[in-house]
Amino acid sequence: MAASAAHRPEPQAAPAAPAAPVAPAVPEKEPNAWGQAVAAVAVFAAIGFALWFGPRILPSEDAAPANGVSCPDLEEEPPSAYRDTPGAVTGDVLCRALNRPDLAGLLGTPGETATAASGDNGTAPLTDGKVAQPEAEVTFDTYTVNVSATYNDLTIAQYVNLLETGGQRDHQPLSVLGRPAVFSSDHTMRISIDLANGASGGPVEQGPLARTLTVALDREDRGGSYDITVWSESGGLPEDGVLLGIAEEVLPAVAGPAG
Fold this sequence. Notes:
Helix 4 packs across helix 7. This protein is an alpha+beta fold. The chain has a seven-stranded antiparallel β-sheet with strand order 1-2-3-7-6-5-4, with helices on both faces. The chain has a domain at 80-255. The relative contact order is 0.11. It has seven helices and seven strands, in the order αααααβββαββββα.
C-alpha cells in the first residue's frame, strides 16, 4: 500500500488564464482641415456681403440724399405772422415735402438729379408782414418746381374772378384732393443783381412762362391756398397732369388728409 502511494503522480498546477487583450489606445481626433477651410470661407463671405451690401441696405447718416440735394436748415425764427396763423407750415416743411426722391419721375424726367433745394419763411407782398407765405423750390436741369402756401382770405372762387377780370383766359377750374382748384399760366419775373457794384438791383425782366396749380387750403374754400408752379428756362412746360401728380403726392405730406 505504501508503494502504491509512492508512485501516485503529483498534482499539476492549473495553467494560468490568458491575459485579456489590451485595447489599443484611441488616438485624439484631428481637426478636419476641409471643415476648417469651408468655415473660414463662409466667415469671409459673410464679412464681404456685409461690407458690400450693408451700405445699400441700411441707411447711412453720411449717405447722400436720394434726390441729390438736401433742404437747408432755416435757423431763423419765422415772422410773427406764422405764430398768429393756426396751422401755418414753414418753408422747412414745404421743402421736405417737395424734395422727394421720386420728384424727377413725377416731372417726367426720371434720369435727372436735383441741383438745388431751398425753403423760405416769407410773408405775402403788400400785407405789412401780416400774412404768412412760406415757399420751397427744387431745381433740375429741365424744370424748376416751386410750392408755396398763402394764409390769406382769398378764396379760389374769388381768385378765378380776378383771373377773368385781368383777362386771363388760360385757366381751368377743377377739384384736387376734394378741394377747389384752378390752373393758370403767367410769366416768371427775372431780376438781375450786379454784385460787382454793391449788389445793386437791375431792371425786372419777364422770365419764362410758368404753369401754376392753385389749390384751396380746405374743402370749404374758406380762404388761402397752395400754389404748385413749374417752369423751365427753355420755356417748355409739362402737361397739366404732371402738376396734378405732384399735388396729389406733396400736399398730403404738408396738410394731411383733405379737410
